[in-house]
Every structure is written in C-alpha cells, then in structure tokens.
Write a structure and sequence with these properties.
By secondary structure, this protein is an alpha+beta fold. Helices cover 41% and strands 14% of the residues. It has 2 domains: 91 residues, Phosphorylase Kinase, domain 1 (2-Layer Sandwich); 192 residues, Alpha-Beta Complex (Aminoglycoside 3'-phosphotransferase, Chain: A, domain 2). A 5-stranded antiparallel beta sheet has the order 1-2-3-5-4, sandwiched between helices. A 3-stranded antiparallel beta sheet has the order 6-8-9. The chain has a two-stranded antiparallel sheet with strand order 7-10.
Length: 296
C-alpha cells in the first residue's frame, strides 16, 4: 500500500464514508501500537488503521473472535464494534473498537500489587478455556518451546553481551525439559508484555492488542507473572490463578526469557536509531530477566 498522509480530516472522511452516525464525534490521535495507527473517536471508541502488511489479517481475526471472548473476561478489552471495508481512499480494512482507558504498563508504575495480581489472574483464568477447533494458531506461540530452539539461540547470541548467558540457558533448559502441555489447547492472548497491559490508579485495569490471539499452552501467557508484575509477585499470582503445575511454571519461565531477549533487541534497535526500536523495551527486558532469576 502506498503511504498516505493520515490526519484528523482523513480519518473523519473515512468514518463519514462508512459509519456516518459516528462522524461528528471528536477525533484525536493517540500513541499507536506495532501494527495499527490509533485515533480516539469520542470518549468510548477508537479507530484502528492497519499500517503493516500483516495487520489486516490480525484485525479480521480480532473482529471474528473478540466480541465472543469479551463476554466472559473480567477486564475491558478493545472489542471491535464496526468493521470497515477497503476503499480507494484507504485500501485496507479497518475497525472501530471500544476504547480502553489507562496507561501502558511500560510507562506506568504498578503500585497496587495485590489488586493487579488478582485482576491478571482472574483475566487469565477466564481467558484460558478450551478453544474451538477452528481457533487461530500461531507458529511462534501455539507450539512447544523446544520447537523455537533456533529462535532462542539467535536471540541469545544477539544479546549475549547484555545478559547472564549461563542463567538464561539454565532457565531455558529447564523449560524445554519440563513435561509438555497435554490438555486441550486454550485461548491465549499470546503477547502479554507491558505495552499491552493498561494501568489505572496503579492497578492493571485493561488488556489490549490481541493480534497474536491463538490457541495453545496456557504457560505461554503465564509468563506474564514476570513480564507484567513487580518482583516477588509471581508466587501470589500463581496462587490466585490456581490452575497451574510446576511443569507449567518452568515452561512459563522459558517463554518469559524468550520474550525478554526479544524486548532487549527492540530496545537496542532504538538506542542505535534503527527502525522498529522502542525506547522503554530494553529496560523492560532486563527487569523480566531479573524477576525470573529471583524466582525460587
């Protein structure tokens, strides 16, 4: 798709063309995610415009599944409200979704740890239900950790000077040696890093960006014990989640270190002025490793 200049007037014209009943609502830009440009639409809605090649398929997936999942989830999510077809003006599909208030956790302190632990555990218990046979899968999330060994080795080699290689390898080895998940594939958010959890008044209050939504091993999401929560909160989280095993915790630690290595790489890209970098993510990656290493 050729790059187009997107401003308030452009977004208003898109809305007026396909959703005229919403065209008089206030429109204003807000910080955007990896795949989509985001605009507030009034107080309760947001326009999500896909900016990457993969983004339209992710939006279609969210539109298909999130309204159904949202009914049972105890935290607000950006449930799609209106689907918008490609046009000559903007040749990709886009959606109008529910606006979820809060600040991303990569830039907001979680002060109310007890309530945040409870909110996250309740959210994942509600989400982690058996997925239907036609649920989406993800080649980087719906698979046993051991199948990602080459990805792990590549990421570790790239960050070897920035991490304790011995301890990272130890966690990874324990994770891939743990018994595999043998239960039914459950629904996963599959991308629970701090930019995708929202914080209000010091408490985790919402979850966004379900582009990686898929079915798989719940341990993939349980890595959030170290990715989202402050140090020493993981034990309380697993007690509140109440549906885990020692093997699942080992697998979750493996997913956490794999994610941390990825976040470190993205942070390093920002430091070097490379495309795709994020200024806070290197720090987030280091904190995740510290929390995993400190976990008994």
């Amino acid at each position: 798709m050729e790059r187009v200049a997107i401003d308030e007037g452009f977004v208003r014209d898109l809305v007026r063309d396909q959703h005229p009943e919403l065209a008089d609502l206030e429109i204003r830009p807000v910080p955007s995610g990896w795949d989509n440009q985001l605009w507030r639409l009034g107080d309760e809605l947001a326009v999500r415009l896909p900016m990457t090649e993969r983004a339209p398929a992710l939006l279609r997936k969210e539109f298909r599944w999130l309204p159904e999942l949202a009914k049972r989830l105890p935290l607000p999510i950006p449930t799609p409200q209106h689907f918008s077809e490609p046009t000559a003006r903007f040749p990709r599909p886009w959606i109008v979704a529910r606006w979820v208030p809060g600040e991303p956790a990569d830039g907001a302190e979680i002060r109310n740890v007890h309530q945040s632990v409870d909110n996250l555990a309740r959210f994942l218990r509600a989400l982690h239900q058996p997925a239907p046979v036609d649920a989406p899968t993800n080649p980087g999330r719906s698979v046993p950790l051991a199948t990602l060994a080459e990805v792990f080795e590549s990421r570790l080699a790239a960050e070897a000077e920035a991490v304790d290689v011995r301890r990272v390898r130890q966690v990874w080895s324990q994770a891939i040696a743990a018994p595999h998940w043998t239960g039914p594939a459950v629904w996963l958010h599959a991308d629970l890093h701090p930019a995708n959890a929202l914080v209000s008044d010091g408490t985790i209050s919402g979850i966004v960006d379900f582009g990686d939504l898929c079915a798989g091993d719940p341990a993939t999401d349980l890595a959030a014990a170290w990715k989202l929560l402050p140090q020493d909160a993981a034990d309380s989280f697993f007690s509140a989640y109440a549906m885990t095993t020692e093997a699942a915790i080992h697998r979750a630690k493996g997913w956490a270190v794999l994610s941390a290595l990825d976040l470190l790489s993205i942070g390093r890209a920002w430091e070097r002025g490379l495309p795709g970098g994020q200024p806070t993510w290197g720090r987030v990656g280091r904190r995740i490793l510290e929390r995993v290493f400190a976990f008994a």
